[in-house]
TrEMBL record:
Membrane topology of this protein: Multi-pass membrane protein
Superkingdom of source: Bacteria
Keyword tags: Cell membrane, Membrane, Transferase, Transmembrane, Transmembrane helix
A Pfam family of this chain: GT87
Principal location class: membrane
Keyword Transmembrane among record annotations: yes
Keyword Flavoprotein: no
Chain ranges passing through the membrane: 20-38, 121-144, 150-179, 191-215, 227-249, 283-305, 311-330, 351-371, 391-410
InterPro entries membership: GT87, UCP010361
Subcellular location, record wording: Cell membrane
Record family assignment: Belongs to the glycosyltransferase 87 family.
Protein name: Glycosyltransferase family 87 protein
Length: 444
């Protein structure tokens, strides 16, 4: 007679698989906690004074937007406020803000207390998103590279930038998308991709990476299934707001189009220094043209490389190109790139150099704002030239990492991930797939 399997025995395989992830989860929780500690000087009242906020390096968008976007009285997108006071984020983030604003209002009648509760609730969500993103990234990286996500869990740049804005929500969705693609769950990957794009716009760059590798491998059906699910998910969460709150919904897109050059962008340097063409031409045009040129280069690289590039490598190059050519490059954008930079090339030296540059930029931007109007505290802040060393530090160090990734693509024997015997740990249907089209095939 066969003995019955106990519930403990039935759970054992799941527990055994989960145990290796426990240390990473705990370290990510530590990183999330440290990020909260970094902002304690503001959390205890410093937000009400810009000088205190900048000198303590504890700025966040979460607290002031509770008041400035009328979350203390109204709902995002439906608020009866001037157009420029509507929530300037895609709908998933707008609804996250709305839910936490409802809870904050229910917890206290005092507006200031509500804003603090709104911040605390948001931080809990963002901390959970960081932990989830790290664990998902570990599953994506695979057993041979399971500890690589430590760069995401607790690197100084991540800790400093974690709670400036809501970017970690999109990060968790993006890692979930990558894991679903890896496991060839095309519909799930598409749904998560659509939700990620409806959270922050940058995951749209991953569509290009998937398309290029699909073109090379000829695996069109999985790609089309994923894109169909992504479009359906995006439509599902967006259409209700497009129909019932058109002005509020379109605020994000109008703001993105009309926004001028802003902090962190190399275009700001060119404008500040009065460079011909680069400092005088419309920034939207310059950004689009330069991004198109870089994307064309990535396409040629993907289709012309001697061996098919890994998905994470192309995602990293595409996302880095998007950031380097953008009109604004906020400190929290580092959260977008860290997971893909690590998956693309988990070599500690260039990563550490880049992280140092990101930390310097994080410090420099707040010191620079101290010296700008309306504060104009030159005794506390830094000037243009010092600030732009931080801007170019990020550009140069990311450029170095991109160069190494390009080299790994052109010389696959240099790729430390493939050195472990895997082809593409994130590739899903691309993993081990033969080429169906390359630039070399055009000459046959």
């Amino acid at each position: 007679m066969t003995e019955p399997v106990t519930s403990t025995e039935a759970r054992a395989p799941w527990v055994a698989r989960a145990v290796p992830y426990l240390p990473l989860g705990l370290i990510a929780a530590l990183g999330a906690s440290l990020a909260y500690v970094v902002r304690l000087p503001c959390r205890t009242g410093g937000w009400n004074d810009q000088v205190t906020t900048y000198t303590n390096f504890c700025y966040t968008d979460i607290y002031p937007l509770y008041f400035d976007r009328a979350l203390d009285t109204q709902n995002p997108y439906f608020a009866a406020v001037p157009f420029d006071k509507q929530v300037e984020y895609p709908v998933v983030l707008g609804e996250v803000m709305q839910v936490f604003a409802w809870i904050a209002r229910a917890l206290s009648p005092d507006k200031v207390v509500q804003a603090v509760r709104f911040y605390d609730l948001t931080v809990i969500l963002l901390g959970l998103c960081l932990v989830a993103g790290v664990l998902l990234m570990a599953a994506v990286a695979g057993p041979a590279r399971r500890w690589d996500p430590l760069w995401y869990a607790i690197s100084p740049a991540v800790v400093l930038a974690a709670y400036i804005n809501w970017d970690l929500v999109a990060g968790a969705l993006s890692m979930g998308m990558l894991l679903a693609w890896k496991r060839e769950r095309q519909v799930a990957a598409g749904v998560l991709l659509g939700l990620a794009i409806a959270t922050k716009f940058y995951p749209l760059m991953f569509v290009g990476a998937l398309f290029l590798l699909t073109w090379r491998t000829g695996r069109w059906r999985p790609f089309l299934e994923t894109m169909g699910a992504a479009v359906a998910a995006w439509i599902l969460v967006n259409v209700p707001f497009m129909v019932f709150a058109w002005d509020g919904w379109r605020r994000f897109y109008v703001f993105s189009q009309e926004r001028g050059v802003d902090w962190g962008s190399p275009w700001l340097f060119f404008q500040n220094k009065g460079w011909p063409i680069l400092g005088e031409t419309d920034v939207s045009t310059l950004g689009m043209v330069s991004l198109a040129i870089m994307c064309l280069g990535i396409a040629v690289l993907t289709l012309g490389a001697p061996q098919r590039p890994r998905l994470a490598q192309i995602c990293f190059l595409a996302l880095a190109a998007f950031m380097m050519t953008n009109k604004v490059w906020s400190p929290q954008f580092v959260l977008w790139l860290v997971p893909f930079a690590v998956l693309a090339r988990p070599n500690w030296r260039p990563l550490a150099l880049w992280q140092l540059a990101e930390v310097w930029y994080f410090v420099a931007i707040w010191l620079y704002l101290l010296s700008q109007p309306p504060l104009e505290r030159d005794d506390l802040g830094i000037g243009d030239d010092t600030y732009f060393t931080a801007v170019w530090g990020r550009i140069i160090t990311i450029g170095i990492m991109m160069a190494f990734v390009v080299r790994d693509i052109l010389r696959p024997e240099k790729d430390v991930v493939r050195a472990t015997g895997v082809d593409d740990q994130t590739g899903g249907v691309f993993d081990g797939a033969p080429d169906r089209f390359t630039l070399a095939s055009l000459n046959r």
